[in-house]
């Protein structure tokens, strides 16, 4: 089986709590490998998007989460209406680990996502913006139901 | 959204041998302003050479909360004190602390007794963070802490 859906929300402060709620329900219903880490990863991605919207001065901007579900995994794509992450930042993150930011007071969010999820990548849109795509395996033997 | 979902609480308890800082609620993006103020006040009020932060009552911890914990840790250590974290049965918080590699900065123990049993704490006076951490890591390597 496969399943997909998209949830959009205005990029205000409440978007974080709203998507936390959706991530918790999705993690439970879809029996991801680690529900806590799935919720944390979605939360971090949404916080990044909200911060980006605030920096751009656009409370009217939209954040969209697209969920793609297969028998094996759940993929989440996080889009906002910001400029997207720069190639330089992506390259810098690729060479960093959480051990490199032990005493830092920021800069853990994307690194936490990479550690929490089974896969994380940046997908380039036709307009050149890069959006975050991340996936987590589902528990073996899941056959549906409310877990 | 219900307001109580955004709560973060901190209680500092001066025990005979150490300061216990008990955190409850969500230490995260939404609570960062209140959490920063409470953690700064707690760091300034510490009385003993050892601070044990009890995170077992936290319902959620994100990168913002981790950064606040690190800032609190730096304040404690820069004042010449040492710090450890206890998680009790809160597997979710322990998992996030370990993923963030905070166990490379300070002991992350199941309870206060595991921290207080460390050799550097048997003598009175200041405790160096590096000495406390080394004792903890040695104890774990020897498998004597019982936590696997």
Automatic annotation (TrEMBL), chain A:
EC number: 2.7.11.1
EC supergroup of this enzyme: transferase
Gene3D superfamilies: Histidine kinase-like ATPase, C-terminal domain (3.30.565.10)
InterPro entries xrefs: Anti-sigma-factor_SerPK, HATPase_C_sf, HATPase_dom
Superkingdom classification of source: Bacteria
Coiled coil location: none
Keywords: Kinase, Serine/threonine-protein kinase, Transferase
Histidine kinase/HSP90-like ATPase domain span: 27-132
Short name of any one Pfam family annotated for the protein: HATPase_c_2
GO MF terms held by the record: protein serine/threonine kinase activity
PANTHER family: ANTI-SIGMA-F FACTOR RSBW, ANTI-SIGMA-F FACTOR RSBW-RELATED
Protein's name in the database: Serine-protein kinase RsbW
Organism: Geobacillus icigianus
TrEMBL record, chain B:
Alphabetical list of Pfam families matching this protein: STAS
Gene3D superfamilies, alphabetized: STAS domain
PROSITE patterns (UniProt xref): STAS
STAS domain segment(s): 21-119
InterPro entries: STAS_dom, STAS_dom_sf
Stored SUPFAM superfamilies: SpoIIaa-like
Name this protein carries in UniProt: STAS domain-containing protein
